Amino acid sequence: MLLLRICEIIYAPAVTDGMLCYLQQLIADHHKLLRRLFPNKRLINKHHHLIHYPDSIKKCGPMIHQWCMRYEGKHNFFKVVSGVVCNFKNIVKTMALRHQIQLCESWSSKKRKCKRIVSFVPGCQKTIQESGMIEQFERVGLRNGDEVYFTKKVQLSGTEYRVGSFVCTKGSATSDNGMPSFARLVDIVIYENAEVYFIVQPASTLFLDSTVNAFVISSPVDVQLEVIGHNKLADHLPLDIWSTYNDAKKYISLRYHIL
Questions:
Q1: What is the pTM of this model?
Q2: Per residue in 50-84, pLDDT tens?
Q3: How far is CA 216 from CA 124, 207, 212, 227, 230, in A?
Q4: Burial class (CB in 10 A: 0-12, 13-18, 19+), 200
Q5: How many secondary structure helices (H) and strands (E) does the chain include?
Q6: Which of 15, 88, 125, 155 is deepest in the core (most CB within 10 A)?
Q7: Is residue 199 a contact partner of residue 227, using CB atoms and an 8 Å limit?
Q8: Taking CA 67 as the corner, what is the angle to CA 181 and CA 256, rounded to the nearest 5 degrees?
Q9: Spatial distance between the Cα atoms of 142 and 128, rounded to a whole number of angstroms
């Protein structure tokens, strides 16, 4: 369980100074417990690296943004070119020249222009007035006569949202009870093929079950539906509920800590 708490902070996209102090204490407790349980085993180099994670996060930001795979992807260009040119008299100059040509072509082409890609399955088109949720849509800036597209599934920049899945609407730092708030997707709305809104049914977060490291939620049936924009979510990843075979509780597990 200590390792799960450590991973929740390490993989979090945003952290606070208090979380870093907590992480430092968790790592110390984890190493002490590991030495107590396995006195004949030596700690490996990765355990030593773990000690420096709090300082690294404080200096360079969350660990999730320090992924080395992008550096390997950049280096792959030079490995491919060096095996093609077959010129080793001045390999440094050759690599620099080819890299400049590649950057010039990339920056001047349309491929360089990154935009948010929205794709969705067929649905139906309605006006805000026909949807019967005029007040909810007005809170997010849509007017009475605006036409929107209702769908059951949308893919936004590689992330797929389906009706029936859950999203995190508030983090632990902004919610009233100090725990994340969740909501079930009832419908998905597309405005002008670019803006994505979710019609959601809020759920109540009851408590954190430390046995399975998941939040126990309940879904009231009489709660009023709400409309929330994709950019207003506390976290962009969709979530699923699960339960055990001998328990009626509904659980939601987070990959990392959400502020």
A1: 0.82
A2: 999 999 999 999 998 888 888 888 899 999 988 88
A3: 35, 6, 10, 23, 24
A4: buried
A5: 8, 13
A6: 15
A7: yes
A8: 20
A9: 8
